[in-house]
Fold this sequence. Notes:
elongated; 7 strands; two-stranded antiparallel ribbon; single chain
Amino acid sequence: MLKKRLFKESWVTKNLNALLFSVLGTFLFWLSIRHLPLDYTAKQWAVLGSMFIASLILYFYTFQIPPEGSKQSMDSAVYLACLFIFGTPSALALLFLSTLVFAFIERKITWWKHLTNFSLYTIMIFGAGTVFNRFGGRLGQLENSHLLSYVGALVIYFVLNVLCIGIYYYMADRSSIHRILKGYLRESAIVYLCILILSLVLTILIVNNGIAGLILFLGISIFLSHLFKKLFDMYLQLQERAIRDQRTGLFNHSYFESLLEMEIQYAHNEDTPLSLAMIDIDDFKRFNDHFGHLEGDKLLGLLGSILNEEATQAGVTASRYGGEEFTLLMPGYTEKEALVFVNHLRKRVNDTPFAGVEVLPHACLSFSAGISGYHIDIHDKSLLVLQADQALYDAKKQGKNIAYIYGSSMPLEQEIEIAQDVRDIEQLLNLFLYKDINTFKHSKRVYRYAMDVGMILKLDAGTHRQFALGALIHDIGKLEIPWETLNKKGKLTPDEWEVVKKHVNWGKEIAMTNDKFKELAPYIELHHERFDGKGYPNGYKGAEIPLLCRMLTIIDSFDAMTSERPYQATKSIQEAVEELRFCSGTQFDPDLTRLFIDYIEGKTGLTPVHAEAT
């Protein structure tokens, strides 16, 4: 199934911004135009008419400036020069007549867009004129003694322009206004500075040379407009080269990383599905070794062209991740829909002829793929990539040329080797034997609880393994806590408690340095989060905490209550069960708490107490 991204856009939200600008601009125009003087001399009327024609000509020499889609022309210099020579009402009248002509020429553009554009210019011109008058500016000849009034008018014109653009883009896609304005100023300030300075040049030329000066300015402006257009084209080319992989034509790794972060944020804010597929060409090294790297590059280019074509049609972003690995970022796709799309793509790749692929095991071009889906409990883009990569690894293990969803219940090889992983982790835990034997014993008990609970939850083999190993290594960060703090008999001081709380961050850093343990990082980092959001280190709540991390919190707390600890009294199993019930819905997930209590009561032979969770 191929589907395009569906954006949730409210008509009211989208158009309220334009409505507010239009109302404000129309009001300011009416407020100013009432004072329009009509007693100009014939020479002044000729100049005003020439400025009107100049604004129309410059309209057809519009050029783009960053951010992409933002258009600008030199007509701003004409309106500002009119303001400095004839006043704000005359400048707004000139703008009004120009807008009427533009609306007639561009009849395909809806009328309210012309009105919005007119209103934005009105706001800027009115603001500039107000500042010019307040600073004592005089109409006509540019005077050095009133230079501050000109500078103030140009600054306010520029500031209002930038703010209007920033608000427009914010209302369009809810991007960060700070980020928009920062990029806008960095890329466009030189263009606006040029236009604003030219308005002063035009003022001098018209006052001293009349229409001849205006014609000279028009020639310079057309030349500069053409130059800015060429510069923007070069900017787009450089931008495109910076985000594209030259060998495949797909987006590169850096662009993928930045886009992934934005798509995760969008999926979180709008509660929309998002899936990521990691693709790896099967046996690419064998093909390279047999035919050489030049033929291998051609094979990469072929797959890149197929991915680009299919992805463009489906609203998917294809990128080259590195080597023979590719990614498909699929906003709007659930994991199952992503699987359908990837399998459609895989079938097309299998059926695409390419010289030499007969040497490959499947006698055709093929790839394996791993798919992961965004969920509210994924807070780091690296976790989504890690899950897709793990699913890709599982697909490779199943014989290649298949796609596999992370955490799926599809049958894996039954004998997943966990013993070696346990031994590797125990090598780390053995350090606790001399530093804090209680933590060593606690980790082993929590691991055994996790093994049992994983069976009750009917986890698939891969998830069960990950949960058990996460339980075993969850307190590894305590290796960084000073011995005297870790083994203190009395109550911890606030400073000591802050040090203890850091063990989740230290443990995560330890896990992230080992490729085998990276996937266990959430269990280490999040096992002290609370269901009500009052835990640490991030204050996540409810479903923001991964389900198995919520379960690990219950197991960890239960064992902590029922085992000897240097800084707290030991509870009986019955007392610990009652504490779990009491904290159900606040510290602990209520559904998982009931499940764990049932398990403990069944395991220990306690008489079930059916009490409502509070």
